[in-house]
Specification:
alpha/beta, about 110 residues, two-stranded antiparallel sheet, 7 helices
Length: about 110
């Protein structure tokens, strides 16, 4: 479980889903986690993509890496097929498949 692996103050980067954030905040052991939604950093969506469309901010891989450092992200939770037709989401998934973002054996024991 993520809360067992998290340090004193940890930031979690989550692709989307307000219910995930609500659930994290409702668990007393997870009070040290801050959740940052990637869709808010990469996209502009007004209520519903189907109704109003989506605008990509054009964040590059280099800029996204800077964001991860700036926000002190320690863990990333992702839904790989979420809006996979968008270049921003393709960039994010491609980035996360790189070696530096792969869990090592020690991290995988916290699931």
């Amino acid at each position: 479980m993520l809360n067992g692996a998290a340090g004193q103050r940890s930031n979690v980067f989550r692709l989307r889903d307000g219910s995930f954030i609500f659930n994290v905040r409702s668990i007393p052991e997870c009070k040290n986690l801050t959740v940052i939604r990637a869709d808010k950093l990469l996209l502009k969506v007004a209520i519903s993509r189907q109704l109003f469309g989506v605008q990509e901010y054009g964040v590059t891989e280099v800029k996204f890496r800077e964001m991860l450092g700036h926000y002190g992200v320690h863990y990333i939770v992702i839904e790989p097929d979420f809006w996979a037709d968008l270049k921003s989401m393709q960039m994010l998934v491609g980035l996360l498949h790189q070696r530096q973002f792969q869990a090592d054996d020690q991290d995988s024991h916290h699931e």
